Amino acid sequence: MTNNNARIAKLAAFATAFLAPAIAAAAPAAAGAAQQSGPNDGIYAIAMGLGMGIAALGCGMGQGKAAGAALEGICRNPNSADKVFTPMLLGLAFIESLVIFTFVIAFMIFGKFGF
Q: For the whole model, what pTM was predicted?
Protein backbone atom coordinates (compact mmCIF):
# COMPACT_ATOMS: atom_id res chain seq x y z
CA MET A 1 0.00 0.00 0.00
CA THR A 2 2.87 2.39 0.67
CA ASN A 3 4.17 1.80 -2.86
CA ASN A 4 0.94 3.27 -4.27
CA ASN A 5 1.23 6.24 -1.92
CA ALA A 6 4.77 6.85 -3.13
CA ARG A 7 3.60 6.77 -6.74
CA ILE A 8 0.84 9.25 -5.98
CA ALA A 9 3.33 11.52 -4.22
CA LYS A 10 5.69 11.36 -7.21
CA LEU A 11 2.83 12.19 -9.59
CA ALA A 12 1.80 15.15 -7.43
CA ALA A 13 5.40 16.39 -7.33
CA PHE A 14 5.65 16.06 -11.12
CA ALA A 15 2.42 17.98 -11.65
CA THR A 16 3.53 20.71 -9.26
CA ALA A 17 6.99 21.02 -10.78
CA PHE A 18 6.03 21.02 -14.46
CA LEU A 19 2.36 21.87 -14.89
CA ALA A 20 1.96 24.71 -12.40
CA PRO A 21 4.61 26.92 -14.07
CA ALA A 22 3.01 26.26 -17.45
CA ILE A 23 -0.35 27.42 -16.14
CA ALA A 24 1.26 30.50 -14.58
CA ALA A 25 3.03 31.31 -17.85
CA ALA A 26 -0.21 31.02 -19.81
CA ALA A 27 -2.26 33.21 -17.45
CA PRO A 28 -1.10 36.62 -18.79
CA ALA A 29 -1.70 35.50 -22.37
CA ALA A 30 -5.18 34.32 -21.47
CA ALA A 31 -5.97 37.65 -19.81
CA GLY A 32 -4.93 39.60 -22.92
CA ALA A 33 -6.61 37.18 -25.33
CA ALA A 34 -10.09 38.45 -24.47
CA GLN A 35 -9.16 41.91 -25.67
CA GLN A 36 -7.34 40.84 -28.86
CA SER A 37 -9.69 38.24 -30.32
CA GLY A 38 -9.91 38.22 -34.08
CA PRO A 39 -12.28 36.69 -36.62
CA ASN A 40 -10.11 33.57 -37.14
CA ASP A 41 -9.68 32.62 -33.48
CA GLY A 42 -12.44 30.03 -33.69
CA ILE A 43 -10.81 28.33 -36.67
CA TYR A 44 -7.45 28.24 -34.88
CA ALA A 45 -9.10 26.82 -31.77
CA ILE A 46 -10.74 24.05 -33.81
CA ALA A 47 -7.42 23.31 -35.52
CA MET A 48 -5.69 23.12 -32.13
CA GLY A 49 -8.35 20.77 -30.80
CA LEU A 50 -8.19 18.51 -33.84
CA GLY A 51 -4.39 18.45 -33.82
CA MET A 52 -4.22 17.57 -30.15
CA GLY A 53 -6.95 14.96 -30.53
CA ILE A 54 -5.21 13.23 -33.43
CA ALA A 55 -1.87 13.37 -31.62
CA ALA A 56 -3.38 11.93 -28.44
CA LEU A 57 -5.11 9.18 -30.42
CA GLY A 58 -1.90 8.20 -32.18
CA CYS A 59 0.07 8.40 -28.95
CA GLY A 60 -2.41 6.20 -27.12
CA MET A 61 -2.41 3.63 -29.86
CA GLY A 62 1.40 3.62 -30.06
CA GLN A 63 1.82 3.33 -26.32
CA GLY A 64 -0.72 0.52 -26.17
CA LYS A 65 1.05 -1.44 -28.88
CA ALA A 66 4.49 -0.85 -27.33
CA ALA A 67 3.41 -1.83 -23.83
CA GLY A 68 1.47 -4.83 -25.15
CA ALA A 69 4.43 -6.10 -27.15
CA ALA A 70 6.78 -5.63 -24.19
CA LEU A 71 4.44 -7.45 -21.83
CA GLU A 72 3.97 -10.26 -24.33
CA GLY A 73 7.73 -10.61 -24.64
CA ILE A 74 8.13 -10.66 -20.86
CA CYS A 75 5.36 -13.26 -20.53
CA ARG A 76 7.04 -15.49 -23.10
CA ASN A 77 10.45 -15.13 -21.46
CA PRO A 78 10.26 -13.86 -17.85
CA ASN A 79 14.07 -13.70 -17.59
CA SER A 80 14.10 -10.89 -20.17
CA ALA A 81 12.05 -8.52 -18.01
CA ASP A 82 15.10 -6.48 -16.97
CA LYS A 83 16.30 -6.12 -20.56
CA VAL A 84 12.87 -5.21 -21.97
CA PHE A 85 11.64 -2.81 -19.30
CA THR A 86 14.11 0.06 -19.79
CA PRO A 87 13.85 0.25 -23.60
CA MET A 88 10.06 0.07 -23.28
CA LEU A 89 10.03 3.06 -20.92
CA LEU A 90 12.37 4.97 -23.23
CA GLY A 91 10.11 4.23 -26.19
CA LEU A 92 7.03 5.34 -24.26
CA ALA A 93 8.77 8.60 -23.37
CA PHE A 94 9.59 9.24 -27.03
CA ILE A 95 6.01 8.51 -28.04
CA GLU A 96 4.71 10.88 -25.37
CA SER A 97 7.12 13.62 -26.48
CA LEU A 98 5.36 13.75 -29.85
CA VAL A 99 2.15 14.85 -28.15
CA ILE A 100 4.05 17.50 -26.21
CA PHE A 101 5.58 18.79 -29.47
CA THR A 102 2.08 18.92 -30.98
CA PHE A 103 0.90 20.89 -27.95
CA VAL A 104 3.70 23.44 -28.34
CA ILE A 105 3.17 23.79 -32.10
CA ALA A 106 -0.58 24.21 -31.61
CA PHE A 107 0.03 27.15 -29.30
CA MET A 108 2.62 28.58 -31.68
CA ILE A 109 0.01 28.50 -34.45
CA PHE A 110 -2.57 30.13 -32.22
CA GLY A 111 -0.07 32.86 -31.37
CA LYS A 112 -0.05 32.57 -27.61
CA PHE A 113 3.75 32.37 -27.33
CA GLY A 114 4.46 35.07 -29.90
CA PHE A 115 6.85 33.11 -32.11
A: 0.54
